[in-house]
Fold each of these.
Amino acid sequence: MSSRDELEKLTVIKLREIAKEYEQITGTSGMKKEALVNAILETRGEPLVEVNKDEQSIARIKTQIRETLKQRDSALEAKDRTKVAAVRKTLKKLKRQTRILAGKKK
């Protein structure tokens, strides 16, 4: 496992603590997770690998997730367990697709 994978598993708070160990990294309180990971890797001298995200597809899938969540809520109110189970399975698939498109899982 590469150090990029290890860093991406950490929370932003932990990444900020690691970044404070390096004097070259400044402005950590305003950085997002991806920027922190890249700054740490760059300071360590490790190669940076750009992840190409399919932003349009991710946005489309997230819209589907929101609609599916509404279906889940209505199924929960109706106490329809079979529909709730089916909707949860659909949500799981949609979330997995977003992770794949974001380049986090292969």
Amino acid sequence: MDVQIHTVADLGLAVRAARRASGVRLDDFAATAGVSKQFASDVEHGKASVHLGLVLKLLAELGAPLTLDIPQAAQQELQALRSKGLRPRKQHAAKSPGKQD
């Protein structure tokens, strides 16, 4: 079933519902996904500042991978970007404490 997610609270409720429906305890769910029980609880309670990579691990453990419905026009651009792969971000030089812009 597709569920529209508009807020982190929506995501948390959906994760909690899926976990409960599968009959898995929170601590077992977290351990199987490789995250802490506190992190899994934070996600289920809609905490906005969670690590997306770990959220994706939880979703994978539930068998509910995240999908994004992008516009048709963006699909060709996405394919081009994927073929290039991700490049590391350039690190900006740290400013000296005494210098001002």
Amino acid sequence: MNRKLNTFFDPETEFEADVLRGENLQRAFAGLQENLVNETLDETEWLALHAPVKQAANEAAGLAWTTAFPLLVFPALFQEKVDRARVRQDRAERIKAQTADLLMEAVV
């Protein structure tokens, strides 16, 4: 999928983009964070992951705000942190299952 695209813009070509700053940027960021957290929680099977997902959002938000483009950086940081939380939760569930098996063997 690596194709070189030759682009050409006339000298009169202009792009308009709203630059978000201050309160508008904070509102947009809060909306993005809320939407991503809600979407992730809707897709989450384990109730035990709800708190870690919210924590991941807060950590990712803190890191994203240290960059020049927090709206662009936040989704990737958030996804990485959620993926780590899922791996930890999966490991915890496996350990609980193994421990339950061992306890059943010890009791019998």
